[in-house]
Amino acid sequence: MFAVLAMTFSFLVGGMLPAHAGDGPALRTPQWRLEQALECGEKVASAERTPVILVHGTGATPEENWSGGYVQALPRAGFPVCTVELPERALVDLQVSAEYVVHAIREVYELSGREVGLVGHSQGGLHPVWALRFWPDLADMVEDSIGLAAPYGGTAAANADCGDGSCVTAYWQMRRGADYITALRRQSPPAGVAYTSIGTRTDELVQPAPEATHLPGARNIFVQDVCPARPVDHLAMAFDAAGYALVLDALTHPGPAEVSRISPLVCTRLFGPDMDPPRVLLGGLSYLEAETSRTIEGYPERDSEPRLRPYAR
Q1: Contact residues for 256 (Cβ-Cβ < 8 A; gap 6+)
Q2: Most exposed of 49, 127, 234, 243 (fewest Cβ within 10 Å)?
Q3: Are residues 129 and 306 in contact, defined by beta-carbon separation less than 8 angstroms?
Q4: What integer is the mean pLDDT of 209-230?
């Protein structure tokens, strides 16, 4: 009787305690939340190529960001896919969201028995680099970290959003000069991982170019390096054919992406191969609807950037 009660108590408390595995800071987010946020395709456990974790951007969900694009295309290219859903549409403290990515890396590495690749759009590109910077065990689990329009240098658009002294938490942290951005860039990311930052010079949200998407220690590329006159906005970076070709190049070669290996024929396409354009557009419309409704517009704001956690100071 007492043994059963002890086991039950242990199970219940374990579900409420912060997750903690591997090196680096203990994860404050309960294990069940981290597990609930990770969704993997059935072929990840038997992966014959690098499994890829997709990390969505600010204000979006995995469905809106990826379902018609990379979730369709990467498995058809032989790369099994997982998605991680960041809390509250990634509008919360980025240090909280990063824990979901830390957990995802460990879980997918263990499930597949292979090094993983990470592809993040916008804010989603920041979390893999943050995780690799502050959780030392992860570098041996990751092959590629690829950002699509990721504001590694902060973005002036966030400075403008917070200019009246009030904005959502995530925007405070993505400002140029934010404490979060300073901590992210204080040192180059750990060696042993190939880092690629892919931006667009016509990005209306992550600016100015090239500073906003520049990541020290990474191969920093613009889609216009492949297709010089190509106009690609921020949201389109999640499905653009030239951006996708660079991602695929990084995943299929040792080291980061290389412009010289990309065929100029990609410049004749809007969407990456094997993507589902109607589904991509539906995802974009769903995101825009959330952005203009109370879902995002009415989200609580604060008057300052959250304090860096001790491990990042």
Answers
A1: 144, 194, 195, 196, 218, 219, 250
A2: 49
A3: no
A4: 97
Using alpha carbons, select from 94, 223, 80, 78 the residue that is nearest to residue 148: 223
**Residue 234, SS3?**
coil
Tabulate helix, strand, coil % of the chain (nearest 5): 45, 15, 40
- Output the CA torsion 313→159→232→197 (10° steps): -10
Q: How far apart are CA 15 and CA 5, in angstroms?
A: 15
Residue 28 CA to residue 5 CA, distance in Å, equals 26
Could you report the per-residue pLDDT of 187-209, keeping only the tens digit for each?
889 999 999 999 999 999 999 99
* Position with higher pLDDT, 13 vs 311: 311
Q: Residue with structure tokens 């990840």? A: 44
- Distance CA(223)–CA(244), nearest Å, equals 10
Three-state DSSP at 88 gives helix
Asked if 263 and 50 touch (Cβ cutoff 8 Å), the reply is no
- Under the banding of pLDDT at 50, 70 and 90, the label for residue 292 is confident
What is the rounded CA–CA span in Å between residue 79 and residue 36? 22
The tens digit of pLDDT for each residue in 114-163 reads: 999 999 999 999 999 999 999 999 999 999 999 999 999 999 999 999 99
Amino acid at 105: I
Q: Smallest Cα–Cα separation from 154: which of 132, 122, 129, 194?
A: 122
Q: What is the 3-state secondary structure (H, E, C) of 173-221?
A: HCECCCHHHHHHHCCCCCCCCEEEEEECCCCCCCCCCCCCCCCCCCEEE
| Prior bond of 208 cis (ω within 30°) | yes
Taking 50 as the threshold, does the pLDDT of residue 15 lie above it? no
